[in-house]
């Protein structure tokens, strides 16, 4: 299948491919990553718009030009600010692009993908999606692929020699007594059910090193949780995994999020590589208790003069129709050299490398 992309993008990504291809070891796990496309039907040349879908298609083209094992999207596929039928259409279009491509994919949910940005302005929060929408449109597509395990809550697991990839759903807000009681756009969370599956996924890594990804990181740079529910719990499980420890984790009593969790990593020999995330619309690398958190910039256009543009993106002076319009990455995990490399294009740092 031929993928048509914009000529200026093809030229820019062609230069990126030429520079990056020699840097990708055949023995490494190499994959394309984008996050926060914030796709919407309403056109804009300064902030978000249908360019989000174009960026997904352009990632698809890039994945056919390099030896990549995966395409990854870390959530906020859509902006969630339009009518429910329109947001669902945009979600379907994005997931259709992943499904018809030749490269396997891991796509997770972001806090905008439940359309709560639209619903916040409507009486009774009308237009907000129930959890089954993400199940049907996002996670069911992930589950159609061989070698990728998908839990009911949207935890994704895929193994490679010496490496386990785990993708957490940090917009995991279950119904309470059959009702939606949280605004998902404002409530980053991992349910207790998913936390339990996460502990089992870490235990199942055995001798593999682990790379964790999600829409939002578990912890902020200041050492405080980035999630309303169970951010600290996710982080403590990662610390325990590095220590090959066992024990109990108390996550409180809040329904759907609280409970007593038993974990046992005494038979594992691998180490935590890093935790890759988006959500904050900037790049940052920091450590909390020895866990490396790495934030990736938003794919979506954020023009310099828009009030919601982050300082990070304002410095790039991002403009429609130029390479600064988008941002994406090729990630290389070299388990033999114990080296994590992130190569950026568009409004992204060109090279970041970390020994783990």
TrEMBL record:
Sequence intervals crossing the membrane: none
Calcineurin-like phosphoesterase domain mapped to chain residues: 31-242
GO molecular function: hydrolase activity
InterPro entries assigned: Calcineurin-like_PHP (IPR004843), Metallo-depent_PP-like (IPR029052)
SUPFAM superfamilies: Metallo-dependent phosphatases
Pfam families listed in its UniProt record: Metallophos (PF00149)
Name of the featured protein: Metallophosphoesterase
Organism: Lacticaseibacillus chiayiensis
């Amino acid at each position: 299948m031929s993928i048509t992309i914009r000529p200026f993008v093809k030229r820019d990504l062609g230069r990126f491919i030429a520079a990056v291809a020699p840097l990708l070891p055949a023995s490494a796990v190499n994959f394309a990553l984008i996050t926060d496309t914030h796709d919407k039907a309403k056109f804009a040349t300064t902030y978000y718009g249908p360019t989000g879908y174009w960026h997904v298609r352009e990632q698809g083209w890039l994945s056919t030009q390099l030896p990549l094992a995966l395409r990854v999207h870390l959530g906020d596929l859509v902006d969630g600010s339009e009518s429910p039928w329109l947001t669902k259409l945009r979600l379907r279009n994005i997931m259709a692009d992943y499904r018809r491509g030749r490269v396997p994919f891991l796509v997770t949910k972001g806090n905008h993908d439940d359309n709560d940005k639209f619903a916040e302005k409507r009486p009774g929060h009308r237009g907000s999606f129930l959890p089954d929408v993400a199940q049907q449109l996002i996670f069911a597509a992930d589950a159609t692929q061989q070698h990728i395990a998908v839990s009911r809550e949207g935890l994704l697991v895929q193994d490679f020699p010496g490496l386990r990839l785990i993708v957490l759903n940090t917009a995991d807000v279950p119904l309470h007594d059959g009702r939606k009681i949280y605004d998902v756009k404002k409530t980053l969370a991992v349910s207790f059910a998913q936390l339990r599956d996460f502990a089992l996924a870490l235990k199942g890594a055995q001798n593999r090193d682990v790379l964790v990804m999600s829409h939002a990181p578990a912890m902020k740079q200041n050492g405080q949780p980035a999630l309303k529910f169970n951010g600290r719990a996710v982080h403590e499980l990662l610390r325990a995994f590095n220590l090959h420890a066992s024990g109990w984790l108390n996550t409180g009593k809040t329904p759907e999020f609280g409970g007593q969790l038993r974990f046992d990593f005494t038979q594992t020999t691998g180490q935590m590589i890093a935790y890759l995330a988006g959500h904050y619309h900037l790049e940052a690398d920091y450590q909390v208790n020895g866990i490396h958190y790495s934030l990736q910039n938003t794919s979506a256009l954020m023009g310099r003069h828009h009030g919601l543009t982050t300082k990070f993106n304002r410095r790039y002076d991002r403009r429609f129709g130029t390479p600064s319009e988008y941002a994406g990455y090729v990630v290389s995990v070299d388990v033999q050299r114990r080296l994590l490399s992130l190569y950026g294009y568009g409004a992204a740092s060109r090279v970041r490398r970390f020994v783990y």
